[in-house]
């Protein structure tokens, strides 16, 4: 597995780029053997249980239940942050609906294919 990490690192260095070990993470999917220790140069790549990539939660089992829970939490937070708006009586319900669609529903559905 270490050789799979060395090849892109060597190719990147040919173009003046380098891998930053502090920004690299190791996520093992369905790995039953002992956890390997991968290195970039002399630094060990950190092993994580899940990580966020382009706003979506990636889990080792490949299931989306963790991602759905995270999306619901983020949408609930967005809704709660607009609490002051929902309580105002001078704002028409149609405007509140448009704000909901733009600020809450978009957070909930981010990354979903339609």
TrEMBL record:
Stored PANTHER family: REVERSE TRANSCRIPTASE DOMAIN-CONTAINING PROTEIN (PTHR47027), REVERSE TRANSCRIPTASE-LIKE PROTEIN WITH RNA-DIRECTED DNA POLYMERASE DOMAIN (PTHR47027:SF20)
Protein name listed in UniProt: Uncharacterized protein
């Amino acid at each position: 597995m270490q050789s799979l990490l060395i090849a892109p690192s060597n190719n990147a260095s040919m173009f003046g780029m380098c891998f930053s070990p502090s920004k690299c993470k190791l996520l093992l999917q369905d790995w039953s053997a002992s956890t390997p220790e991968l290195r970039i140069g002399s630094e060990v790549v950190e092993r994580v249980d899940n990580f966020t990539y382009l706003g979506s939660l990636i889990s080792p089992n490949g299931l989306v239940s963790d991602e759905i829970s995270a999306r619901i939490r983020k949408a609930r937070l967005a809704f709660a942050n607009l609490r002051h708006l929902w309580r105002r009586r001078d704002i028409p319900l149609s405007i509140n609906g448009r704000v909901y669609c733009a600020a809450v529903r978009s957070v909930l559905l981010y990354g979903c294919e339609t």
